[in-house]
Amino acid sequence: MGEAGGDTREWTVVIPVKGTARAKSRFGGAPGEHAELAMAIALDTVASVLETPAVAEVLVVTNEAASAGFTQPRLRVVLERGRGGLAAAIALGIATALTTAAPGHGIAVLLGDLPALLPSELDAALRSAAAVKLAMVADAEGLGTTLITAAYGVAHTPAFGPGSSAEHRAAGYIPLDVPARSGLRNDVDTIERLHELEGRLGPLTTSALNAN
Fold it and tell me: Which CATH number fits domain 10-211: 3.30.70.1350, 3.30.70.20, 3.40.50.450, 3.90.550.10?
């Protein structure tokens, strides 16, 4: 694959999307009540990634039921195998990216619940990440992780879950300097967090939130 970390020109981005009735269960309400809102968040996130100049390809890892929503150019859907959860979806996405990414493509993993993400924010982070072997972006609270990157030729060791920011640092990921207010750091798990981001949300999320 070439010299590790030295030749990253563009990025393949892996985005896991939970396309089930349990998606965003912390939003409250009956199971499946917020499925449309959860999908709108994922679609807005993916749209911003596709508009990011440094991104060459996007792989969305999701189930068959949700896959019909992802039809944009430069986007590939990777169907989940069983119910392995987030870690399994990310591992599958990375493995697929390794078999398809062109020479010079680093591999990034981005969470799919960043509805205030701007392409310029992701682009700046990816261009900074190209200078190091492994990089990461912590969430706004500093405890979780929203993005990890591995430069061309470098292997990932993802550790998403509770306390993932510390886990990724321990695994050698270098934190990138991204403002806490950035859409790249503001993932959403509750309706309250969505309302805090009103005015910055993507169009599909805004419409779905107003309909709830």
Answer: 3.90.550.10
